[in-house]
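Hi V.,

You were right to ask for the full record rather than a summary. Here it is.
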Amino acid sequence: MALAWLILYLGSWVRLLTISGLNFHHGAVVLAMAPLGIVTVQKFIPGALHAPARSSFRWVLAFLTGLLSLDFAWLTLLRFYDPAEWQPTILLVLMGLGIATFAGEEWPSDRGSGPWLWVFLWMLISGRDPVLGLLGAGLAPLVFHWGNDARTVERMPGGTRAMNWMLPLLLGLFLPKPWWDWGLQSASVLPLAAFGVGGAIASIRPFANRLRLMPDWVLISTLAITGLLYAPSWGLPWGALMGLLAASAFRRLPKPLPIGAFAGYWILGMLVSFILQANAWLPGVRHFIWLGN
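Predicted structure:
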């Protein structure tokens, strides 16, 4: 569920805010920043947001989350989401709370290619409208919330500690670049759809075994170099390669995933990415940061 929370929900949320703009004279806009509070709770009070222990209650929560996402999409589809509007913003926050309760868990259905293909599907669909990425996030608990109890997953150490913050920061810094380049055009989501395909391929056992041989520092360095070499002309292979590397890195993270810290660095990377893109006209900054431009 972590990928749906990070890429589809938080990623689409930041994207919508950058498209819509923020005017803090409206109370609903302040509420639209509530996902930052959710991530803060995940980081500092990790046990506060968790799904109920009883299976029937968990399915009810997953169903309600999906229903809220459908309602949000119905209100905002094919029109600009305005953070100053109370009703869709409340739905957005409630949907986020629902997804967040599942985000730190790992179910058997969360392993393998399934979550990466889910990202591929909804990133591709969101080429029609960015709010559809949020719909995919809200429906994820219904699709992947099955199998043995997630709390029986063995606690496992991860790779180097630097991986825990460098991976989300690098992904946040580089992965949204097509969004800033292409805006609302359908081409803005194709590299991220390819990212999901690359992650799915890397989750297949023969590919996973080969990528496991790559040292952590080589993997992160390759991911950073690939991100820097982004160019709109080769967005599809770039996205697929980023997905291959990211999926290999994800498997090296500790279990359970420290979702609060991971989400925080992901959001930070996206915000820095947007700021750099918005100020790319500054002398020296443009070519120093985005070598592909």
